Amino acid sequence: MNGNKLLFVNVNIDYLKALHDVDSEVQYSDEGYIRKPFLGILLLNNYKQYVVPLSSVKEKHLHWKKRYSDGRYLVTEIISRSSITQNAIYKEIGSSVSVERIYAALDVKKMIPVREDLYTTVSFAVLQDDSKSVVDYKILQEKEYRACVKIFDDLKRHAQDIYNKQMSTGKIQKFCCDYGLLERTMNNYREQKAPAAQDLTPQNTSTP
Question: Is residue 71 part of a domain?
Fold first, then answer.
């Protein structure tokens, strides 16, 4: 994996639950990821792959700064006021023509270790059979990606600092995942094989 290239990935949900079972700070929802996959930014910490979760923007993020020393970030972009969509969350910037749209939030403290068999890379390519909602989602993801490119170098440094501090001192910061515990869990994790599909074809039980 190239640690200098920004990648969006979706993480295996069964693996995510296994991590959450040993560390409640791992972001996981029984229902949430059925509708929307766990999306994050892939990076390296001491040659180990980690994913920083990309969280959907909420009204509370209007009160966030763009960067905090504890590892929180806003993913934003200056856009034309005329391009604001119905559900967009944005900040006023004192301009009559532009606003700062908030696409997502990142919390480096919540990053999780992964192996290459436990995630898939996100593609923004629009396919012929994609529905309008899927196309709109891919367009939004691509905008989030472009906004993340601008903070990626700082994000990598911040993640490395948080990781190194925890691993060298053994002290786990408040609201922070336990990286040593999660790495051990990952090393012991074996992907669950899906059960064989049940044949639901209606059977003809009528008597000839």
Answer: no
